[in-house]
């Protein structure tokens, strides 16, 4: 379980989010990564906010998003 003191939040600008199916797919997939506490997709801004353990790197989250077919913009 992720503890509060070791949790950080990362926000990603994600291209290719088109609807509720995309939101659900991203939230479901990322929430199953070890170390992820929560995932919130903002459809209007195309942003994905991930609260995660510090041991989970941003590159791991970005690679997962890209493997789903989404682009991650810096």
UniProtKB/TrEMBL annotation:
Residues 8-73 form the HMA domain. It holds the Pfam family HMA. CDD domains: HMA. PROSITE patterns: HMA_2. InterPro entries: HMA_dom, HMA_dom_sf. This is HMA domain-containing protein. It comes from Sporomusa silvacetica DSM 10669. The lineage of its organism: Bacteria, Bacillati, Bacillota, Negativicutes, Selenomonadales.
């Amino acid at each position: 379980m992720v503890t509060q003191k070791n949790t950080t939040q990362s926000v990603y600008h994600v291209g290719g989010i088109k609807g509720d199916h995309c939101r659900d797919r991203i939230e479901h997939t990322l929430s199953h990564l070890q170390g992820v506490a929560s995932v919130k997709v903002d459809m209007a801004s195309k942003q994905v906010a991930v609260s995660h353990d510090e041991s989970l790197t941003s590159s791991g989250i970005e690679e997962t998003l890209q493997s789903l077919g989404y682009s991650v913009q810096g």
